[in-house]
Amino acid sequence: MTQLLDARTSTNITLATPLFPVDSFLFQNPTLVGQIGLNVAADTEGVIRVKLEGQIGVFIVAENAFSPVMQITIVRGDQPTDPLVSTTFVQFLPAEVGPKSIAIEAADFNVQAPESGVLVYTMYATSQSEDMGRPGPECLTGVAVTD
């Protein structure tokens, strides 16, 4: 029977703004947009599975002549170089100006129980285009279960 180990939510920017945001994503530089620490005991038995969901708001400016691209990455750990759980690229048409929302779902299967008792997941957004605004929202949610 499946047993719930822990569930957590990280909210970075809670409300989106329809106006041009004061902050932006740096070009080709991973920006931390969500991080959770799931409490999973080091002696947890069974197959540990983690379901992850995230949301990121972006703002496309009218001056962008090329199709804007945003990369969303989730890692197990707290650094962009930690083990990759999921990555996706979202491309918008140049005519799609204004605020947009990106949703991502990921899963991590057969995870080792962490010695520290905390299983950390971090979500990064990397703009592959110039002038991508950061209007919010930004959140990451995770649920860990075992057999």
Task: Fill in the CATH topology.
Answer: Jelly Rolls
Task: Calculate the terminal CA-CA distance, rounded to whole Å.
Answer: 6 Å
CATH C-level label: Mainly Beta
How many structural domains in the coordinates?
1
CATH architecture: Sandwich
Strand elements, count: 10
Number of helices: 0
C-alpha Rg, in Å? 17 Å
Mean pLDDT: 92
Order of helices and strands: EEEEEEEEEE
* Classification by helices and strands: mainly beta
Described by strand count, sense and barrel closure, the largest sheet is: 6 strands, antiparallel
- Helical content, roughly? under 10%
**Could you list the spans in which at least 5 consecutive residues all have pLDDT below 50?**
none
From the spread of the alpha carbons, the general shape counts as elongated
Q: Beta-strand level of the residues, as a percent range?
A: over 45%
Organism: Paenibacillus herberti
Protein name: Exosporium protein C
Structure in words:
- The protein is mostly beta strands and 147 residues long.
- It has a single domain, classed as Sandwich (Jelly Rolls).
- Helices cover 0% and strands 59% of the residues.
- It contains no helices and ten strands.
- The strands form two sheets. Strands 1, 2, 4, 7, 9 and 10 form a six-stranded antiparallel β-sheet that branches. A four-stranded antiparallel β-sheet has the order 3-8-5-6, with no helix packed on it.
- The termini are close together.
- The relative contact order is 0.42.
- The mean pLDDT is 92.
